[in-house]
């Protein structure tokens, strides 16, 4: 089939069609084909659109961060549509804030040069192997993040520009000593508290939920009971590391490779030298006179190390008797290096040598001659390199065959798998976020859920998931996202309604008890009537984890109680329970001038973050921000 296509593409009809296509590009403009899209943006900030592609990339990064944070528990968390909806909303909000910062940075004239972006990429540890930048690793990682080199550079430029903005704002922020003391005192403040927690479960038995209420709730909230779209995938996976070498590597092959690459296993000559430096211009007669006097003393038998300590202007090496440790070629000033490597025997000294730093007298203290690693020491390493090269050659040959067969026989992967020498693998029906490796990379999962693969059930193109690592996929089965049947979620809805009603009842009951507390009834009396016990904390801190966060937050919002007049409050807890609070006392410590440096930095950074967030909020309040009501990159 491919041969027929090639032959057909050379015929006169094909050339006429090609001419028409080229003419249409010339008339309409290539930008019209590549730049326009019917895709609706996830948001628009002062006329600048945030695309679905930007959202998808940021959302995948956030998912990866959460998966790393929660581990195996993330699967359970991500099953909650409401939780994942909040995650998506948070990603959109963050993209909006980033665009607002980009626009402010542009308005302020902040810029990041191409050279700065290049240096940042070279210094990133993610792109390094053995401490050196690896271009192959760089390309592999950015492709996994769905970037091309040019788009990644622009993405990084935006990040660095925003960092300039943050640095500018943070660098201009400060705290007065009195403000710092007040902040430390507030941080260390404690509060004496009595509280009573009323559990909603106590009233759950009194709650009744009808079948009609369950149906009504289901009808109004079907979006909360969606089963995600699921797909069953057949795929082949080909990795160079799994391929047998195309030929057996003989001892002669390894030896020949050793001879070809011997320079890689040659340790260059090293020399250990000491020097005495006289700083100044080489044209200065006094400087020349001082250097010559030192040389004369050495020739007369003076000790080099002692003379270096007394007369060298290189303070660091002078303390070590002039020692500069081991040097190799192209490490030192050219004149210095030439003189040092011209010395023949350990103990020899040079005449006066001029360099850009001044005048030197150099002594050779040790030599390590150039050495070549023996063949036996590197034989296995070389064999592994040759085997890897053979595997890579075989990999790319197989990849070409796989690509052709997957295209020619578009409705089956069997022929391509035979050519690759691998077994086909098939998944069960799985949601997108449950796909196994290597299908869970952004490039592969995006390809799987394209209409072409879902509807036509054809083979995908060759998809790169790593260095010398590819997959080809085809969809075996697919079920669209749909609302779960009422029967399946009825029990879940009933439990939710019971909890909501119980929470409402406990809230009303607690409000009644709170009114009694304000009228003078003791908290202990209320507790006795409810068959509960009052709980106390005589030194509650803002960072306390032994008490519900809602109680801690409310306790530190209450005003200071007057003598014999405690402050009362009612709190609704996050789990639907409620609590009554009695604040008895507030204890604020005296803070001296010797504030811990780490604490000072923490408080200052908190204020900087607060002020910067206030700046971003102000930008958003003044901006024209549109959030279209659309489904953005649904993953569940």
Automatic annotation (TrEMBL):
NCBIfam families: PRK10788.1
Pfam families: Rotamase_3 (PF13616), SurA_N_3 (PF13624)
Signal peptide residues on this chain, from the entry's feature table: none
Transmembrane segments: 12-34
Coiled coil residues, start to end: 372-399
Key words of the record: Cell inner membrane, Cell membrane, Chaperone, Coiled coil, Isomerase, Membrane, Rotamase, Transmembrane, Transmembrane helix
Keyword Cell inner membrane: yes
One term of GO molecular function: peptidyl-prolyl cis-trans isomerase activity
Residues covered by the PpiC domain: 268-366
Family according to the record: Belongs to the PpiD chaperone family.
Gene Ontology CC terms: plasma membrane
Subcellular location: Cell inner membrane
Membrane topology: Single-pass type II membrane protein
Protein name: Periplasmic chaperone PpiD
SUPFAM superfamilies named in the record: FKBP-like (SSF54534), Triger factor/SurA peptide-binding domain-like (SSF109998)
